[in-house]
Write a structure and sequence with these properties.
The protein is mainly alpha-helical. It has a domain of 130 residues. It has 10 helices and no strands. Keywords: Signal. This is Sel1 repeat protein.
Length: 199
């Protein structure tokens, strides 16, 4: 029952995202979580071993983890490692970061790296607990905390992602506070670049 309700909620999250050009759709980046959940024991043990060698779950070194995953993906054709690397790469390249030099700005990279980092954590939980929903829950918690920190520092991309995430989770009062901040910054150059890159 919980699983069915969660899927319904995620479908609504996707539908809401399509109505707004700026909408942040978590599911866009987490499509390989099911692969992590159902990983065979050798793949699971290999990837969890890489996580442990890169600082444990509380302090993961993203670069170390991605290097290890890429090595295993290529040398052993490990599909789980390939899926995690793909999700991370997709997150980093959000907002045309990989294709448009004008979009390659630090504030965009910071927000994208938060999404990528949180995806790594989500995959860890999906693998270690063999539970896709555990991975999704950790993804949402991580995103909320990480994006909040960047938004507090004035990062507009994080502000947009955070307000969308909060609204989709039904936390309207806090989402509305962030919407007010967004309205105040709509005439800025940063906003216009955001619309070009992420719109």
């Amino acid at each position: 029952m919980y699983h069915r309700l969660r899927l319904t909620g995620l479908a609504l999250l996707c539908a809401c995202s399509m109505q707004n050009a700026f909408a942040f759709n978590v599911m866009k980046y987490s499509h390989n979580l099911a692969t992590s959940e159902s990983a065979n024991e050798p793949s699971r043990a290999t990837v969890l071993g890489i996580v442990e060698s890169c600082g444990q779950v509380t302090n993961i070194d993203d670069d170390c983890l991605i290097q290890g995953l890429d090595r295993v993906a290529n040398e052993e054709n490990n599909l789980v490692a390939q899926g995690i690397s793909k999700d991370y790469e997709d997150a980093l390249n959000t907002g045309n970061f990989d294709s448009d030099p004008e979009c390659q700005v630090e504030t965009h990279l910071q927000a994208n790296r938060i999404v990528g980092h949180c995806l790594l954590l989500a995959h860890y939980y999906a693998l270690s607990e063999r539970d896709h929903n555990s991975g999704l829950s950790q993804l949402e918690l991580c995103l909320q905390g990480g994006l909040q920190g960047l938004a507090d520092q004035g990062n507009m991309v994080a502000l947009y992602m955070l307000s969308d995430l909060l609204e989709q989770k039904g936390i309207e009062d806090i989402a509305n506070q962030w919407k007010k901040v967004k309205r105040l910054r709509k005439d800025s150059d940063e906003y216009h670049l955001l619309t070009k890159c992420y719109g």
